[in-house]
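Why should sequence recovery work at all? Because a backbone constrains its sequence more than one might expect. Tight turns favour small or flexible residues, buried strands favour hydrophobic ones, and helices have their own preferences. The token representation captures these environments compactly. In the example below, the structure is given first.
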């Protein structure tokens, strides 16, 4: 069975690994330049920032096993309050998984077409394929629910569960300073009505380099109100508030902002995944079960199980 998986976040990579291990031929497509989705690490002006998920934790055996494996291989390390972080960045675990999978980056699939018993993928530049294959026996949509719903609709397919999921957006600020902060400075600062969390990113386990790196996440309400502003305008607004919260007067070396349009699952669909065995079309992601990376992992594992059961 040849399976196209759209999305190289944790849900998509989890499904892809399980299906590849079961003998399926998988092809993963992602619109970004690297894997991981919101397990993201960005490098700008020589500075590294974890501008998506701050940390990881596991409550259930399957993801606990994944974290144990990552820890044994030096891909994660303990941080604070039972949390772990990717080493040297949060994208290290997904990059490790994606390295052994066929993944096409910078590929934005915009449509699905059912031809006989197979699926064709289309993009703005034409048909999408990999390794000489442009027709697939099954398709898995491992992207945020609104994006999955739009793709399913291009093929005339309805997935009601997708409409039950609700997201909050999140603007994220990345700031770097050449000089270190004073000894004893906190690693995490308190939030307010504009900023939900401020993290001293360079203080995480396994980080190197001098100076200071700070990542701040805006609240959902503030992000909604300012969603369509330019990143430069948002960066200026958030920087002013973050410097005030931290009590800093120093001029930063780097300032940038990133918009997560689907930043956090506020209401999950309440299903582990969606799978239409007759059409061989499915969808998975954190939107199924909850906002945590573990939820995305569990959804991807459930997706692979559902596909295998229908073969």
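From this structural description, the recovered sequence reads:
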């Amino acid at each position: 069975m040849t399976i196209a998986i759209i999305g190289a976040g944790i849900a998509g990579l989890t499904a892809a690994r399980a299906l590849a291990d079961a003998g399926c031929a998988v092809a993963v497509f992602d619109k970004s330049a690297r894997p991981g989705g919101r397990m993201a690490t960005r490098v700008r002006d020589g500075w590294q920032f974890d501008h998506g998920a701050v940390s990881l934790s596991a409550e259930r055996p399957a993801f606990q096993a994944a974290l144990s494996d990552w820890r044994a291989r030096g891909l994660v390390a303990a941080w604070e309050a039972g949390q772990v972080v990717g080493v040297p960045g949060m994208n290290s675990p997904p990059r490790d998984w994606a390295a052994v999978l066929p993944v096409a980056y910078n590929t934005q699939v915009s449509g699905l077409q059912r031809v006989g018993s197979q699926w064709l993928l289309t993009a703005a530049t034409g048909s999408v394929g990999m390794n000489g294959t442009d027709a697939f026996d099954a398709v898995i949509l491992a992207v945020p629910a609104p994006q999955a719903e739009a793709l399913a609709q291009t093929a005339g397919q309805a997935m009601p569960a997708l409409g039950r999921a609700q997201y909050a957006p999140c603007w994220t600020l990345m700031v770097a300073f050449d000089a270190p902060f004073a000894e004893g400075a906190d690693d995490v600062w308190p939030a307010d009505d504009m900023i939900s969390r401020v993290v001293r990113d360079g203080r995480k386990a396994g980080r190197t380099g001098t100076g200071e790196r700070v990542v701040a996440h805006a609240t959902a309400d503030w992000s909604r109100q300012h969603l369509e502003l330019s990143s430069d305008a948002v960066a200026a607004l958030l920087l002013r508030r973050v410097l005030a919260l931290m009590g800093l007067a120093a001029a930063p070396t780097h300032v940038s902002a990133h918009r997560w349009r689907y930043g956090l699952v506020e209401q999950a669909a309440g299903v582990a995944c969606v799978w239409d065995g007759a059409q061989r079309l499915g969808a998975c992601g954190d939107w199924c079960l909850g906002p945590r990376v573990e939820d995305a992992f569990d959804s991807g594992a459930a997706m692979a199980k559902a596909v295998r059961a229908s073969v």
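A few observations help interpret the result. The longest helix spans residues 293-310.
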